[in-house]
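In full, the data:

***
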Amino acid sequence: MKAGAEPRTSLFGPESGLSDRVDYRLMETPEEKDCIYLMRYKAYLHGGVTSPSESQRVSDRYDDAPNAWIFGIYVDGELCSSIRLNVVTSECRISGSTDLFGDVLHPRLDQGEVFIDPLRLAADPEKTRRFPDLPYLTVRLAYLACEHFNADTGLALVRAEHQAFYRRVFMSEVIAEPRSFPGFLPKVSLLASDYRTVREKVMTRFPIMRSTSVERRMLFQRAGERPSSPRGVVTSFERAFRLPETAGQRRTRPSGP
C-alpha cells in the first residue's frame, strides 16, 4: 500500500459489523436530493462519462417522478453512493430506460409486465477505493425493489465494459444494443434480468440480496407513510454476509446513467 493511502475495507466480512455501519436513506427533500446530484456530478466527471457544467449537478426529470425512489448509501455516517429506482408499470411508464428503449419495453408493459429501472448509479470515487464491496450494497436496493413491488424484470442501462457485473450478479442478458443516453457520454445497452426465474439462484450465490419484509417496507415507505420510524433510514440487515469470490478474482463495478 502506498504511503498515506486509505485502507481497503470489506463490508461483508464477519468482522465488518455491517449492520452497524451501513444506512440506506430515502432522499426526499430538495436539500437531500441536491447532495445526491452533486455526488453524481463528481462521480461522473471523475469517470469521464459527463461533461463539465457550471451547476456541478447531474439530475433529470425522472428524479421527481411519482414512481421514483432516490437512495443514499451511507457508511459510517458518510454518503458513499446513490441509486435511483423507477417502478415502471403499464399505468406509470416514466423512466429513462422506457423512454430510450420504448420500442422494446412498451409492448411488454402492454402485456402487464412490471419493471424496476435502476438508473443514476453513482459512487464517491474515494469511498469506492476504500470500500470495494460498495457496488453490491448499492445495486442490492434494486433487487429488494423487485421483491417489494412484485416486479417481473430488473432492467439496467449499462456500457459495454460493465456488463459482466450484471451478467454475473443478476444473470442479466442484453435485450437491446447500445444507444445514446442524454447527458451520458458512452452509449449504453439495455440489460434485463427475469427476477422470478433467477431469484433463488442469485440469493444463493449472493446472500446479501436476501431481505425481510420489514426491511423492504421501511425502505420504500414515503415520509408520510411512516407513523413512527425515523424517516427513510434503514440500518439493519438479517446478518453480515461475505461475498463468494475466488482468490485473486477482481470485482467489476457497476456503472450506468
